């Protein structure tokens, strides 16, 4: 059984020690967020991040969309359209590929944390988007034998946006541009029991 994280794929901020969801941007051209009804500049935030659940199916990465009645639906996070077509995934390279598979076929359930504040600091410092780099991820335990209960960290790499064939400035649906600190996977015994 997989336990979904409470704020799956939602931006969260920590401001003055309190965790909350931002209410939106601080306005056009203002590097700020609305937090509890007030405009807070990014520099004053303690943290700003997004967490999303990930898993592997047939040795390829997916972000977890839904989990119901022992079935898992997720979006393909890889970049091999021919592999996706060969596996019979629904969708396209443009709109994204979706799988709908039994829980017993997935492995390496994990949480990826995307540090949005660190990405903003990088853009502010270097006047460009952070490079796509390798990030370390850790597997979470699952109850079913053979379901990927390995705890060995592995490396995942994402290509630069210019390598993806998309116009510059458009990020792929399921990727996270980040610096070395900006993407982390977190193990939690509450996620998979």
Could you please describe the fold and organization of this structure?
The chain is 9% helix and 37% strand. The chain has two helices and 13 strands. Strands 1, 2, 5, 6, 7, 8, 9, 10 and 13 form a nine-stranded antiparallel sheet that branches. Strands 3-4 form a two-stranded antiparallel sheet. A two-stranded antiparallel sheet has the order 11-12. A hairpin with a 2-residue loop joins β3 and β4 (38-41). The relative contact order is 0.17.
Topology:
Blueprint (H helix, E strand, L loop, with lengths): L10 E5 L2 E3 L11 E4 L2 E4 L5 E11 L2 E9 L2 E6 L4 H6 L3 E3 L3 E7 L3 E10 H11 L8 E3 L16 E3 L26 E4 L7
Antiparallel strand pairs: 1-2, 1-5, 3-4, 5-6, 5-10, 6-7, 7-9, 8-9, 10-13, 11-12
């Amino acid at each position: 059984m997989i336990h979904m994280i409470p704020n799956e794929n939602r931006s969260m901020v920590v401001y003055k020690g309190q965790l909350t969801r931002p209410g939106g941007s601080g306005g056009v051209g203002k590097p700020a967020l609305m937090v509890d009804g007030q405009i807070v500049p990014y520099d004053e935030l303690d943290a700003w991040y997004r967490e999303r659940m990930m898993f592997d199916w047939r040795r390829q990465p997916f972000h977890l969309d839904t989990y119901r009645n022992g079935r898992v639906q997720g979006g393909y996070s890889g970049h091999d359209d021919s592999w996706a077509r060969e596996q019979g995934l629904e969708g396209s390279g443009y709109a994204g590929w979706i799988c709908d598979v039994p829980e017993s076929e997935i492995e390496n359930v994990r949480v990826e944390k995307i540090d949005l504040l660190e990405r903003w600091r990088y853009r502010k410092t270097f006047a460009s988007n952070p490079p796509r780099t390798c990030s370390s991820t850790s597997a979470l335990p699952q109850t079913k034998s053979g379901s990927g209960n390995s705890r060995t960290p592995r490396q995942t790499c994402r290509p630069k946006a210019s390598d993806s064939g998309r116009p510059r400035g458009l990020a792929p649906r399921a990727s996270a541009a980040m610096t070395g600190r900006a993407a982390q996977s977190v193990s939690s015994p509450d996620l998979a029991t």
